[in-house]
Amino acid sequence: GGSRGIGRAIAAAFAERSATVIITGRDQASLDETAEAIRTPEAHTYGIVCDVADPEAILNLVGQVTERFGEIDTLINVAGVNRRKPALEITPEDYDFVLDINLKGAFLLSQEVGRGMVERQQGCQINIASLNTDRPLRNVLPYAASKAGLASMTRALALEWGPAGVRVNALA
């Protein structure tokens, strides 16, 4: 979720601080445009396609990044989608689309990156929550449920991985 919105702003801030930044999303053209736009003379920025709703894509992404760049120091889970509809109109496909990206994808990416962080006993993961985490707005039930789940996942991972030197936090 790094090619636009909050994800792009966070990626740009890391690039301004000379970090190596890998942004992901589902569209290579927008990733390339963002990587070029946020690049600084001291920062290396790359866009790699990854649909976090696809567990195989997550494995490929993490393998590709660690092989090419080494350890992952910081993970920002910012990918998020929404379908605004009254609860009575939400289809199973709507529900799965939102939860698969916003919650399951975040968990699977945290888990795969977390393996190396726990092993090294260092790292930082930041999950982007929402105002809907605690106070859902009208017509965004799956989104609000995914963000509430993300908050609980954040607390659970912090509890498990904190003693191993891995910080897990959420921002809303």
Structural class: alpha/beta
Shape descriptor? globular
Major β-sheet, in short? 3 strands, parallel
Query: Order of strands across the widest beta sheet?
Result: 3-4-5
What is the overall number of helices? 5
SSE ordering? HEHEHEHEHE
Terminal CA distance:
16 Å
Structural commentary:
By secondary structure, this protein is α/β, with parallel strands linked by helices. It is 51% helix and 16% strand. A 3-stranded parallel beta sheet has the order 3-4-5, covered by helices on one side. Strands 1-2 form a two-stranded parallel ribbon. α2 (28-38) links the parallel β1 and β2 (44-49). α3 (55-69) packs parallel to α4 and α4 runs parallel beside α5 (141-161). The radius of gyration is 16 Å and the shape is globular. The model has no long low-confidence stretch (mean pLDDT 96).
In a nutshell, what does this entry contain?
The protein is of the alpha/beta class.
SSE blueprint and pairings:
Blueprint: H1 5-16, E1 20-25, H2 28-38, E2 44-49, H3 55-69, E3 74-77, H4 92-120, E4 123-128, H5 141-161, E5 166-171
Parallel strand pairs: 1-2, 3-4, 4-5
Features of the shown structure:
172 residues, alpha/beta, 3-stranded parallel β-sheet, two-stranded parallel ribbon, 5 helices, 5 strands, 51% helix, globular
